[in-house]
Amino acid sequence: MARAGLVTSPPSPAWCVLGRGGGGRTVLVLLPAEGEELSHRDCAPEELAEAVARIEAEHSPRWVWSDAAAWYPRLLAAGVTLERCHDLRLVHRILRHSELVREADGLRAADEWDTPLDPYEPPRETGATLFDIDAGSSRSGAVPGEIEETLAELTRQREAIDGSREAPRLRLLIAAESAGALIAAELQAAGIPWDVVEHDRILTEALGPRPSPGAAPERMVSAAAEVRTALGDPLVSLDSPPKLLRALHRAGIDVSSTSQWELQGHEHPAVEPLLRYKKMSRLLTANGWAWLDEWVHEDRYRPVYVPGGVVTGRWASSGGGALQIPRRLRPALCAAPGWLLVSADVSQLEPRVLAAMSADRQMIAAGAGKDLYSGIVEAGIVTTRQEAKVGVLGALYGGTTGDSGRVVPRLRRTFPEAMALVDGAAATGERGGTVTTWLGRSSPAPEESWTLAQRTANQPDAPAGEQERSRRSERDRGRFTRNFVVQGTAAEWALSWMAALRLRLARFPEVAEDERASASGPVFSRRAHLAFFLHDEVIVHAPAEQAEAAATAIRESADAAGRLLFPGSPIDFPLDLQITERSAEK
DNA sequence: GGAAACAGCGCG
DNA sequence: AAAGCGCGCTGTTTCC
Asked: Hey, what's the signal peptide range on this chain (predicted)?
């Protein structure tokens, strides 16, 4: 009954709203349960962390603020963690688009809440700097973060939720999204334990020793020389696609672009060193020594996560490329001495989410307790696991050609409910409609110009070229909405997983602080904590004696997330789980 | 001379 | 062997 526990609020759900007041002070408004008295107080910047910690200990309220990204980092720095929050800016963007909200005009009018906070901009609230001015009195418009506007937005949002067609689902989504905001700030504060020596070793092995500034590494220089010799062009730039393409043509290599997948089909002696050069160039520019200098300090890599940064609800990152760390650098992700990494990823998250959403019994059965793709092979639908994978991805992404185009029709016969769900989402998108995830995040409506252009092109007298272009545009949008419902619901599952895990880990006992683990700061060097998240994968950094318990917590949380989203469904979400000192390359 | 777009490639 | 969805980041080219 995990679901009921979250949906029907406990008897006295205090909310504590944080906002900027006058004179650089912060106002705290405690919204109590009915019948109790509303209370508020304000405090100076240097008193804030202590005041928040005291209220958290006494009432454990849901903290309401403009953005976790603006308020939470300095609380964490002061050693304060919070259990739950309501992130108005993230929630605003969900509610104003959601099809489940009946009346969103008020929210849409408050468009100052639509702007995502620029993570590079220093936080503009709480008056924690000495130079803070009293913004409240000097501005005319409503400003997120000021206490009056914060309370007004909370009221708008509560009305929108209470009046929605499916308030319980929306409440789950909002709680999960807000938990994500806490987690993102905590992940950044804790940092990813990073072994600079190992990273340097991988770079040196691949590229040669670190060159002096401005120079290219040895092995890139020699690979480039091989390419130029083979092309008979001693000066050609390998970093300029147009120039390189012309040089390739002059050497008789018939390609339409310089991308690796097109090059690798050709026999020419320039191809092998060129592909080698491209690999090295990529590693150097994206995650080379300059990246190490910029992003890793005191054994921690601290990327910037952007919760809700993708339309589907997935996280994005901004700076540091947290979600694109190449697998070959994974071994640099390494536990502090005396600590361990507990890594877990969900097998075939998206297909399983689709199976659960559509309650497709055959598809659920194919994945029950094992690899879903192997299950499809065993059911006799295809002959190889690779075929099953390509077919399922084609179903999720709207593939029509090649292997996936051949397998999808067979999947449609075997898994009719699952396929009907994604096919329906695609049809809605092609018509210009909106689709919605399991918990209520809706896809953005198409631009007005798009709808208009489609209507014009669909007139019988429209030029054939225009009609063709219009059909292609419709299909593009259909593939987007087809994938949106699945990718978005998978993101909701992952948030629920992490939210449950985070609360379990917070109840772990404290251990003695370790010298190297202390690089994670006062909060995260005394017990197991989340260190990494990547769509369907988490890594917990744990004192060795807590690693087994952390693994159990990860599994329990995955089960809890499944029950929370799909109560009563037989769907399962098996994990690949490993306890190691060093992350595996795979 | 700086912003925007593109190419290419890393991740799920 | 690539395709079909969603991203970020770098270096280069193009545009204003």
From this structure: none
Of all residues in chain A, the percent with pLDDT exceeding 90 is 80
| SS3 label, residue A64 | strand
Mean pLDDT of A88-97: 96
For β-strands A62-65 and A84-87, DSSP reports them as: parallel
Give nucleotides in strand B with any atom < 7 A to a protein C-beta. Answer: 7-12
pLDDT > 70? residue A466: yes
Question: Quick check: A270 and A248 in contact, CB under 8 A?
Answer: yes
Decide if pLDDT at A123 tops 60.
no
Whether A537 CB is under 7 Å from strand B: yes
Residue A265 binned pLDDT confidence (cut-offs 50, 70, 90) = confident
Contact, A403 CB vs strand B, < 7 Å? no
- What pLDDT sits at residue A210? 96
Of all nucleotides in the shown strands, which has a C1' nearest the CA of A326? B10
How many CB atoms neighbour CB A44 within 10 A? 13
Q: Which CATH number fits domain A350-486: 1.10.1070, 3.30.420, 1.10.287, 1.10.150?
A: 1.10.150
Positions on chain C within 7 A of a protein C-beta: 1-14
Where exactly are the structural domains of chain A? 1-190, 198-292, 350-486
The tally of CA atoms less than 13 A away on the side-chain side of residue A217 is 22
CA A87 vs. chain centroid, Å, equals 16
The least confident of A42-56, A98-112, A114-128, A180-194 is A114-128
What mean pLDDT do residues A205-228 have? 95
Is 3.40.1350 the CATH classification of the domain at A198-292?
A: no
CA A16 – CA A29 distance, rounded (Å): 6
CATH top class, domain A1-190: alpha beta
CA dihedral for A375, A379, A385, A386, sign (positive or negative): negative
Closest residue, CA to C1' of B7: A241
Distance (Å) from CA A477 to C1' C14? Answer: 28
φ and ψ at residue A341, rounded to 5 degrees: -100, 130
Kindly give the residue spans of alpha helices, DSSP state H, lying in A379-463: 385-397, 402-414, 416-430, 448-457
Asked if residue A397 keeps its beta carbon closer than 7 A to nucleic acid strand B, the reply is no
